[in-house]
Amino acid sequence: MPDSPKRRDFLGLTALWGVVIAMGTALAGVMRLPKPAVQPGPLRVFKLGDPAQFAVGSTTRVETGGFFLFREEQGFHAISSVCTHLGCVVAHNEGEGFACPCHGSRFSTDGSVIGGPAPAALPWLEIVLSPDGQLQVNAESAVPKGSRFKV
Amino acid sequence: MTPIQEFLENLKQTPRHIRESAMRNGKAPETDRERSQSTLHNLFLHMQSVRTDRRSLRFAYTFGLGLILTASFVVLTITGILLMVYYKPGVELAYNSVKDIHFVVPAGRFIRNIHRWSAHLMVLAVFLHMARVFYTGSYKRPREFNWLIGLALLVFTLGLSFTGYLLPWDQLAYWAVTIGANIASSPREVTDAIGITAWFDPGGFQKQLLLGANYVGQESLIRFYVLHVAVLPLLISAFMGLHFWRVRKDGGLSRDESKPAPPARIGDRDLEVFAPTKTYGLMAVVRGRTPVVGRSPEGSVSSWPNLMWAELAAFMFTIAVTLVLSYFFDAPLKEMANPAIPENPAKAPWYFLGLQELVSYSAFMGGVGIPSIVLIGLGLIPYLDRDPRGVGIWFGGPAGRRTFWQSLAYGLTSVIALLAVTVNFGWLRTWFPTIPQIAIIILNPATVIVAMFSAWSLWVLRRTGSIRMSAVALFTCFLAGFVVLTAMGSIFRGPNWHFYWWPSQWPTH
């Protein structure tokens, strides 16, 4: 067997690779640290008070929640104001839709993309009535476009 | 001499003895041997060679850009440490602590201005330095790897700038973190478009790593702070050391080795030649009796003091420029971060506005795809262009100069024409509103620019048959593109990222 490695070479290589593997594993273990195990963050469910205080045809901007609340004949709906492109806050222009100040994305009144770089429509958010009779919007939970909440 | 006299005499001489013992080479050097020793025997100078080629000292060859970079990094380190004394990395505290530095801390405003202006100078110089090294062919063998280290330094410099302007936690900072984190998560655009995000989500992972949370807040600020004051400075220092060391080991600054060095002037003290008289073979440094170094000793001058003067001049220039700018122009501080409303338009500092323009076509392509392509392309240049000719000559000669001007004209016109089309007629989504996102990711103005540049470079390759010329063409096109896009983002974009000829045309509200 002319090509078989010498015993000393074999032991040396084994030791070398043992060190490499140990260092790699240790590094992987250490690098677990920056990946957060819990995601700290504020509660993203917002109580907006008595549904009756929102007039039919009104638009309310909820700054802390990052969404717009619309009241129309058919009921309530909430559309996120966080641009799907890179997370800026869009402005609402009555009758025209939404426009993003950062990179020029534009959305129609129902949130669909009509221009600019945004990859997806603005999501519609879930609305329920809380047990104490308040309108409650969950900004983490999207619902299909066109679903409205009737009181 | 009585013991007391000896004691008094020693006491009198103590300052001189301390000076002599501190400097291994006590007095000002007078001969070439002493000049070389003053380089060799000094920790801070021994990184330099004893002799410097005359051509390396020519201002029009380097413009001192590498030295300006080093000098601005030193200035940034010192002023940065001073700012750390007062800065508090907390979302509630950061803004007010920066305000304190600006208005209350003694000399705080000046120090902060210097920090800001030398950072801008460093970014500008890093681009110019790269262009200088490229156009003089200095990336060629044996300097290929140092080109790669230089690219890493470019990335670290931009990383330091980005993490730096987040720290005041003003409107610029908050929205830059938001946009930056979302660019990090923009691979989701692709994984969403092909529907695999649930199983494979590199974008989400990167965003989580950067922000440390699902939203931009305290966890994010402290992460960017650690990156800015510890991780990136350590990395960039290590790589700078490596970069300098390779400059030395790869034979000093590049020069045209095909021609002998220009002869020394008559009457120059350096005319006396430092010819090696001892046998280097004894030190097992080289085989044979004489070293290869100093093939043309008459073309070189001793580094002390010639190179020292050049280096001091570059340092003085850097410091003078930053001081003057800092005296007249204050570093900006916008309103405190407001997560509810971004500024309109929300603009990054100038060096990222080209990227912001690209990102306004597609987040993934502009923020991740094209920058990666450009970096990989730049890194491959020295390995694809192996032709050793033309090192140390600007543009490699008249043919390269011609290619440069032609490519500059092509790059400028093609990008301006494309931007004109985009501004006037919109892009795919304007024409086909229901077009799938993946089509826009693949075909948008940013990718069209890359395609146009590559086509031009291939055409130059076919026409001239020279890889070097085609590299000059491509690099020049990207330089032109960078300039046009940066100008577009900084001057011609207004509220809602609409096109305006002049900021005075911006609508009021």
Describe this entry's structure for a reader.
The complex is a heterodimer of chains A (151) and B (509). By secondary structure, chain A is an alpha+beta fold. Chain A contains 1 helix and 10 strands; from the N terminus they run αββββββββββ. Chain A is elongated. The relative contact order of chain A is 0.16. Chain B has 509 residues and is an all-alpha fold. Chain B is built from 19 helices and 2 strands. Chain B has a two-stranded antiparallel ribbon with strand order 1-2. In chain B, helix 5 (94-103) crosses helix 6 (108-135), helix 14 (363-384) runs antiparallel to helix 19 (467-491) and helix 15 runs antiparallel to helix 18 (445-464). The model of chain B is unreliable at 266-277 and 286-296 (pLDDT under 50). The A-B interface holds A 34-36, 39-42, 63-64, 66, 85-89, 91, 99-104, 113-117, 119-120 and B 175, 178-179, 181-183, 186, 189, 192-193, 205, 208-209, 212-215, 217, 219, 223, 339-346, 356, 359-363, 366-367, 426, 429-430, 433, 437, 440-441, 444, 495-498.
Index terms:
heterodimer, A: alpha+beta, four-stranded antiparallel sheet, 1 helix, B: 509 residues, mainly alpha, two-stranded antiparallel ribbon, 19 helices, 2 strands, 62% helix
Widest beta sheet: strand line-up of chain B: 1-2
**Total count of helical runs of at least 4 residues of chain B:** 19
| Structure annotation, total helices of chain A | 1
- Morphology of chain B: globular
Helix content of chain B: 55-70%
Low-confidence stretches of chain A: none
Oligomer: heterodimer
Mean pLDDT of chain B: 87
